[in-house]
Structure formats: C-alpha cells, structure tokens
Design a protein that fits this description.
Layout: H1 2-33, E1 43-45, E2 57-61, H2 63-69, H3 72-79, E3 89-91, H4 99-107, E4 115-119, H5 135-145, H6 148-156, H7 161-164, E5 171-173, H8 185-212, E6 216-220, H9 240-254, H10 258-271, H11 276-288, H12 292-304, H13 314-327, E7 330-332, H14 334-339, H15 356-374
Parallel strand pairs: 1-5, 2-3, 2-4, 4-6, 6-7
Helix pairs in contact: 3-15, 4-8, 8-13, 9-10, 10-11, 11-12
C-alpha cells in the first residue's frame, strides 16, 4: 500500500515538475523572441536615433508635411502677431518618411515641443512593414491588443508584452530610407487591410505619445487631387465587357449626351464595384453636369480604388478623421478645405501639391488655431 502511494506521489511530482519546466520553457521562448512594446507592431527598427528640437512647434510627416513646412515662416508670422519675438517652427517632415518613421523620430526626441503638427499619409507604401508569412500571428496580436483591459495592463506593465503577444519574425526597418518599393497588384491587395490597420494603430500611438509627453497634437487630413486619373485599375475589377461598356459611356460623352452617359455610368458602377477607372468616368460626367457632390464622391472612390498606392486617399483621411474624433484630437481638415474650391478654381499645382495660394490660406488658418491654443 505504501509502495503504491509512493509511486503515485512520485509520478505526480514528476508530472508537476515536467509541466512547470514545460510552461517555463514556453514562457521563456516567448519572452526571448518578443520585443517590449505596447502596440504589437510587426516591424522593428534596426537602430535607435536621437533627435533634438528647440522650437515650441514642430511639423512631422512625409513629403506633404515637407511641402507644408515651406510655408512655416508665414505660419510663424501669423502666430507671432503682436509678440516681441517670433515663434520658431522646426520641421522633421521629409520626403520618404511614412508614419512609422515619423513616430520613430518622435520616440527619439529628448524633449518634446508644445505642439506637434502632423501632415502625411501620402507615402505609406514606400516600404514593406511585415513578413507576409507572419500575417495570421500579427492579426492575432492585434486582436489581443483590441482588448481594453489588456491595453491598460500593458500600459502599466509593458514588459508583459514579451509574454502575452505571440512571437513573430519581425520585419527589420533600416535607419536609412530605402528606395520606394514597387508593388505588384496582388501584393498590394493582399496587404491592404492589414496596412490600414497598422496605420490606424500608429496614429493612436502618436496620440498617446503626445499625451504622455504633455505635447499637443494637431492632425491634418491630406489634400487629394481629384482631377488626377487613377494610375492603375485592379485586374480583378475589369474585363473586356467592362471596357466595352465604358467605351460606350465615353462615346455618349463625345456626343455631349451627358445625362445618358451619367445614367449609364451609374448603372455600371452598381454592377461593377471597385473599378477605379469607372468611378473616375462617373465623376467626370457628373462634374460636367454640375452635380458637384456626386462628382466629388465618385472621384474619391476612383482614388481609393487605384491599384497603385502612390498618394494619400480618402481612406487614409477617413482614418485620420476617425482617430481625431474618437480621441478628441484637434483636426485641421486640409482635404475638406481644398474640396470647397474644387471645380471653380485651379486648386492644384501638380498631381500632389495644392497651389501656393491654398498653402498660404492653410497656414493662416493654422496660425489662428495655434494662437488660440497658446492663448496669444
């Protein structure tokens, strides 16, 4: 009896020991493979960088932010009205800096400025952000992050992220900005949903970072030139029949039968959703008929369904507006501001950048806004 009991106890202790070693080894493996981060980004920078700013206001972002910064003197002049010394504005915005690189810059700041102004979202596809084979685990980590209780726990104890998140192979981001990546359509479409989710998480990260550093964040939407035709139509959204139907609409336009052309275009859009060229054709016809709101809506769709991600779109602006609204962050709707004059004036200098007049008006409005914020 005693021998039997001893065998049972020995087996039980051995099982417990094996279980403890197994669980410990499993947790150690997760801990050693993961990096400490509240937001489970699927990438990691190869090196840390230190940035120093002395101005109370900085501009961050990509080429759109860099273009806005060309008018920083005008903005500073507006902010500094009736002040003995002009307010200084510095820019970290630069062509080739998607949002993840802007956040990396901000994390490298020793001391944050009073105000951070973000203008970007036009170069988000310049480089790969994750390893495609890791997508399923990346999505599971995002699902974990969406749990508000877990978010709170990780904010308080960020080191737990190394155990709680599923280990993945991280995409390494070099310090130097690489050459712009050329995307195949199937690559772009396969990544689109996850890339948009990453962009939203990065925006939220920027919001939380600015709050932690007692810095005021101003988000801006990105102007989108609606008159520029899509660069590529996704192959999955077109065929010879669609092309023939679109040519029929163009023929109606050449005959100046715009009402019939719009009716036909509307029918085709309903039948073949997702064709960028078809949305663009619909918008152009609506514009000729003076149906401004319908034209803008169609042309926004045309830009959004472009299968070549070469600029910002209404999708990214929608995410920026959503984050600003839900997080109660100040928003300057530059894209909406540009739309007010669309169709009545020449609003853009080229495919990307608004006319200088509109930048001057924008920085004037931003200057007034910042004066109110600083109570000047």
């Amino acid at each position: 009896m005693l021998k039997t009991l001893k065998k049972i106890l020995t087996a039980g202790l051995a099982f417990i020991l094996v279980a403890v070693i197994g669980v410990g080894g499993y947790l150690f493996l997760r801990y050693s493979k993961n990096i400490e981060q509240v937001v489970p980004y699927p990438y990691r920078f190869e090196s840390e960088e230190a940035w120093k700013v002395t101005a109370p206001i900085i501009i961050v972002g990509d080429r759109m932010g860099e273009q806005l910064a060309r008018f920083e003197i005008e903005m500073a002049t507006k902010i500094s009205e009736n002040l003995s010394r002009p307010i200084e504005i510095q820019t970290l915005a630069k062509e080739g800096l998607p949002l993840h690189r802007s956040i990396h810059q901000l994390k490298g700041l020793g001391k944050w400025p009073q105000i951070v102004l973000y203008q970007g979202a036009s170069e988000e596809w310049n480089e790969e952000l994750f390893i495609p084979s890791e997508v399923s685990w990346i999505k599971k980590n995002f699902e974990l992050f969406n749990d508000e209780r877990l978010q709170t726990l990780l904010i308080l104890y960020p080191e737990l992220s190394r155990v709680l998140y599923h280990p993945i192979n991280y995409k390494k981001i070099p310090a130097a900005v690489p050459e712009k990546k050329e995307w195949k359509q199937e690559e772009y479409l396969a990544r689109l949903e996850l890339r948009l989710k990453i962009f939203e998480l990065e925006l939220l990260d920027m919001v939380n970072l600015s709050r932690d550093r007692n810095s005021l964040l101003i988000l801006t939407t990105t102007p989108v030139n609606l008159d520029v035709a899509p660069h590529e139509v996704c192959e999955i959204s077109t065929n010879l029949d669609i092309e023939a139907d679109m040519e029929g609409v163009r023929d109606l336009i050449r005959k100046k039968d715009h009402k019939t052309a719009l009716t036909r275009a509307n029918e085709l859009v309903a039948r073949y959703p997702g064709n960028a060229a078809l949305y663009y054709l619909q918008g152009q016809v609506a514009k000729r008929l003076g149906r401004r709101d319908d034209a803008i809506a169609a042309l926004k769709q045309a830009a959004a369904y472009d299968c070549l991600p070469w600029r910002a779109t209404e999708v990214y602006n929608g995410i920026i507006r959503k984050v600003a609204r839900e997080q109660q962050v100040i928003l300057f709707d530059f894209a909406g501001y540009m739309e007010k004059d669309w169709g009545s004036n020449v609003t853009y200098f080229n495919d990307l950048y608004p006319q200088n007049l509109y930048y001057q008006k924008a920085v004037d409005q931003l200057g007034i806004l910042i004066r109110r914020i600083l109570k000047l």
